[in-house]
C-alpha cells in the first residue's frame, strides 16, 4: 500500500444529526480522543501481565492483582474504591502434566494440559486404551460396554463456517465442559479433549470442566497438533488398540478468601442507580491473561478514568468492577449480584468485556426487539464513524449474568471485539501482553465509555 | 471467557429478504462456506512468503513470483491465464545502511532503512548537522539559510485520533513521500524520516519517496525508537548542534522487464465486460510482503477459485490481476489500464485489496451518493451477517486507479480490512506470513467474492 493524499478534514466526520445527537456526537469524539491520545489501559495491562502475571483464583498472584487494582483505581481518584470479599475455589495444577500416545512399542509424547477443576491421576499415571469420539451423544450410542476402562478422546474440531469465532467455541465446547463428567458416567477412566481453537499449533488450551454429579475423572486438553497425531495413529492402527498415558497432579484445596475490586463515580442525580462496566481479574494459571481478561478489566477502569479526565459528571453512579473467579466458579459475579440485591441498588445496565481486547465491532444487548430497534435508530449513527456499530440482540457475560436473577430490570450487554484471533491464544501460555494491540485496546475502551455515556444520558427505555 | 451454550441454528442467520435477495443470500453463504472450509489462500500465501519471499520490482524473486503465480492460476483451470509485459524501475538497496547520532564525542547507532528510490550517499557517508522539523511547511518558514548543508529530520508522528489507521498514514505520509524532494530544494544534504507507524519499536519502515523535479538526496526512515532517541538528543543539546551520519548504498539500475499476471473466467453473457479483482505481486525488498500485498493477490485468485469450486458461471468476465510494481512505480497498473483501452474492453468495476489481510470491514466505493445509497439499501443486509457491511464513499487502489482515465464508466472499489495492525508491520521485515491469520484472510476473500458475485448479477446501475 502506497500513500494517497488525504484531507485532514476527514478526521471529524460530518453526520446529520439532531441537536441532542449532535451534543452526544461531540462528547463521543472527546471520549475517543482521550482514549487514543492519553489512554492508560495499555500501560496498566503491561503492569498486570508482566509484573503480576497469571492470577488464578486463590493464588498469591490473584491477591497481588487485587491489591494493585485497588491502588490503581484509588490513584485515579474515583469517588469510592473498595473490595467485596468472596470465597473462591482453589484449584492447583501441580507439577506439569505428561501424556504419551502408546502405539505398540512406540511412546510419543504430546503437548497437553489438565483441564481446570480436573482431579489428578494416581501418582503412576493412567494407561488405558483410547477411544476417539466426536460428540457426547456417541457415549450413549456406544454404551458403557465399549467405554468402560478406556480413555475417551473427544476430537470434534471447530465448525469453521461460523463467522464469529465465539460461536464455533460455543458449539464445540461441550466436549471440554461436559465431556469428562459424561464419559465418567459410562465408566471412562480419563478424558482427553481436542483444544478449543481453529489454530493448528502445539499449545494446549486449558479451561474449566464441570463434572456435575458424576464421579470426577482426570481430564486434559491436547494441542490440535497432538489431537491430529493421536487421531491419525488410531486410524493407522486399523482397529488394533492404541493406548494413552496420562499423568497429572491437580488438586482441589479448600476455598480461599478473595475479592472483587470496585471503583465508583457517584451519580449527580440518581446515585442509587448504577451502570456497571466490568471484566474479570482472575486468569488461568498457564497464561498472563492478557486478552482473557486483562483487557476487559483495564478497559473498565479506563471508562471511569476517561470520564474523570473529561470532567464528565455522570447522572447515575458508574462502577468499574474487576470480578474475581470467572474462569472456574463465577463466585465474584454471584457475590456482586447478591450484594446489589442486599443493598437495594437499582441497576440500569451492566456491560461486560470478556471477549478479548481486539478492534471493537459493537455490543450484544439482551433486550426486546422493539427496544433494540430504538437503540439502533438512535445510537447506531453515533457509533458508525468509529466502526463499532453492530448493536445486536443477545449479550452479557458470565460475571454480570447473575444480576439478572437478583436485580430486576437490569439490561445485560456484552462488548463485542473482533473474534477471529481470540481462540488462537485463549487459555494458553500464548495469551500474553505482546498479542494485544494498543490502539485496538483503546478503541474498545472508548466504545465502552461511549455506550455508558449514552445510557447515562438517555437510559434504555425508549 | 467461559462457555455459553449456543444453538447451532445461529450458524445460518434468518434475515427477511426479497426472493432475489434470498437467492443472493444463499449464494453468499455458499461462498463463505467454500472460503472457510476449503480455502486455499492461506497455503498459497505461505508458499509465496516462504518459498519465494521478498519480490521487489526487477528482482529475480519478482520473476519467480510471476512464474509461480501463473502456474498457480493455470492449475486452478481458469479459462485464460496470461502475462502482460511491463517495464519496471529497478531500484536496489545495496549493502545494509548505517546511521549514527553524533552528540559531541558519542556516536549512537540507530535502526534505519533507505527509502525506496533513494539515491545512495558517497562511499564515506554523509555527516552533517541535523535539524528536526514536523512539516514540509516549516522548510518554507525556515528558508534555505537554516537548511542548507544540513540533514533534515522529519519527525511528525501519526495523529492517533484517526479511527482508521490508513488516514493517520495518509496525513503523516508527505514527510516520506515528498519530504526529501522538498528539503533538497532548500539545500538539505539528506533527509531522515520518522517511520510511518503508531508502533513504538525498532523496525524502520521503508517506502517510496518521490523527488519530482528536485535534485535527489539520500533519504532514510528511522525506527520510531530511533526517532525518539534523536529528538531527545536534540532537545537535551539545548541548541548545541547534533550531527548525524548516514551511509547507504542504493542504486537505480536500468528498467527491467516484468509482468502482470492475469487469470480469467469468461463471462457467459457479456464476455467483453469485465469485473477485475486484484492486488499487487511486488513487495518491498526488506519484507516477505505478507500483508502488503501477498494477501491481496491470494485473495484475488481465491475469488475465481471459489466460483469455479461452486460451479458458478459468471455472466461477465471476471479477472484476478496480480499487478507488478505498485510499490515504486505503478507501472503494472498503468499497463493494465493502457491495454484495457487498447483492447476496447468494457469494465464494470475494479476492486483492489491492498490494505492487509485482516478481518474485513467492508468496501470503499467511488460512486455517486445516490448510487451508494442504493447499494446500501440493496446489499448491506446481505453483508451484515458477515460483519463486512461498511459500504462507504470513496475507495480504490493504486493499481486500479489508472483505469479511471482509460476506461470510462468503471467503478473503483477498495476492499477494507481492519486497519489497526497494518501499519505496525507495513514495509518492515516484520511483514511476515506468521502475522496473517487464516480465518481473517479467508473472510476477506469471501467478502470480495460476494461483492463480485453481486456486481456480476445486478451491475452497479440502480
Automatic annotation (TrEMBL), chains A, B:
Transmembrane segments: none annotated. Its main location: endoplasmic reticulum. It is found in: Endoplasmic reticulum; Golgi apparatus; Lysosome; Secreted. Residues 1-21 form the signal peptide. It comes from the Bacteria. Pfam families: Peptidase_M28 (PF04389). GO terms for biological process: peptide catabolic process; proteolysis. Residues 260-444 form the Peptidase M28 domain. GO terms for cellular component: extracellular space; lysosome. The keyword Hydrolase applies. This is Carboxypeptidase Q. It comes from Mucilaginibacter polytrichastri. The lineage of its organism: Bacteria, Pseudomonadati, Bacteroidota, Sphingobacteriia, Sphingobacteriales.
Amino acid at each position: 500500500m502506497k500513500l494517497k493524499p488525504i484531507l485532514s478534514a476527514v478526521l471529524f466526520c460530518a453526520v446529520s444529526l439532531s441537536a441532542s445527537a449532535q451534543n452526544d456526537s461531540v462528547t463521543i469524539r472527546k471520549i475517543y480522543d482521550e482514549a487514543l491520545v492519553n489512554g492508560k489501559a495499555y500501560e496498566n495491562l503491561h503492569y498486570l501481565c508482566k509484573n503480576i502475571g497469571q492470577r488464578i483464583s486463590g493464588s498469591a498472584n490473584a491477591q497481588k492483582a487485587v491489591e494493585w487494582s485497588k491502588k490503581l483505581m484509588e490513584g485515579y481518584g474515583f469517588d469510592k474504591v473498595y473490595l467485596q470479599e468472596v470465597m473462591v475455589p482453589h484449584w492447583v495444577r501441580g507439577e506439569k502434566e505428561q501424556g504419551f500416545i502408546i502405539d505398540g512399542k512406540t511412546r510419543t509424547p504430546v503437548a497437553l494440559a489438565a483441564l481446570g477443576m480436573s482431579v489428578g491421576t494416581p501418582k503412576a499415571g493412567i494407561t488405558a486404551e483410547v477411544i476417539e469420539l466426536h460428540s457426547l451423544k456417541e457415549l450413549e450410542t456406544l454404551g458403557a460396554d465399549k467405554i468402560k476402562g478406556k480413555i475417551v478422546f473427544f476430537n470434534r474440531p471447530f465448525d469453521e463456517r461460523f463467522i464469529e469465532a465465539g460461536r464455533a467455541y460455543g458449539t464445540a465446547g461441550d466436549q471440554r465442559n461436559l465431556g469428562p463428567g459424561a464419559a465418567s458416567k459410562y465408566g471412562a477412566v480419563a478424558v482427553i479433549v481436542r483444544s478449543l481453537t481453529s489454530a493448528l499449533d502445539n499449545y494446549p488450551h486449558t479451561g474449566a470442566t464441570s463434572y456435575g454429579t458424576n464421579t470426577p475423572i482426570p481430564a486434559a486438553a491436547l494441542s490440535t497438533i497432538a489431537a491430529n497425531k493421536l487421531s491419525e495413529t488410531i486410524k493407522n492402527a486399523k482397529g488394533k488398540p492404541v493406548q494413552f498415558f496420562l499423568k497429572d497432579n491437580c488438586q482441589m484445596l479448600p476455598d480461599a478468601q478473595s475479592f472483587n475490586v470496585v471503583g465508583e463515580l457517584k451519580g449527580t442525580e440518581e446515585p442509587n442507580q448504577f451502570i456497571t462496566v466490568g471484566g474479570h481479574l482472575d486468569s488461568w494459571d498457564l497464561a498472563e491473561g492478557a486478552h482473557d481478561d486483562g483487557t476487559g478489566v483495564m478497559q473498565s477502569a479506563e471508562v471511569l478514568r476517561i470520564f474523570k479526565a473529561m470532567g464528565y459528571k455522570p447522572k447515575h453512579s458508574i462502577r468499574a468492577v474487576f470480578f474475581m473467579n470467572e474462569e472456574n466458579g463465577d463466585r465474584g459475579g454471584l457475590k456482586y449480584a447478591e450484594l446489589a440485591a442486599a443493598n437495594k441498588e437499582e441497576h440500569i445496565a451492566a456491560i461486560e468485556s470478556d471477549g478479548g481486547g481486539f478492534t471493537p465491532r459493537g455490543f450484544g444487548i439482551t433486550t426486546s426487539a422493539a427496544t433494540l430497534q430504538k437503540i439502533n435508530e438512535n445510537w447506531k449513527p453515533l457509533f458508525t464513524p468509529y466502526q463499532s456499530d453492530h448493536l445486536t440482540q443477545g449479550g452479557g457475560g458470565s460475571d454480570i449474568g447473575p444480576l439478572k436473577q437478583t436485580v430486576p430490570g437490569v439490561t445485560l450487554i456484552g462488548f463485542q471485539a473482533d473474534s477471529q484471533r481470540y481462540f488462537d491464544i485463549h487459555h494458553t501460555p500464548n495469551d500474553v501482553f505482546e498479542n494485544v494491540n494498543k490502539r485496538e485496546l483503546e478503541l474498545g475502551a472508548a466504545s465502552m465509555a461511549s455506550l455508558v455515556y449514552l445510557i447515562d444520558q438517555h437510559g434504555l427505555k425508549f
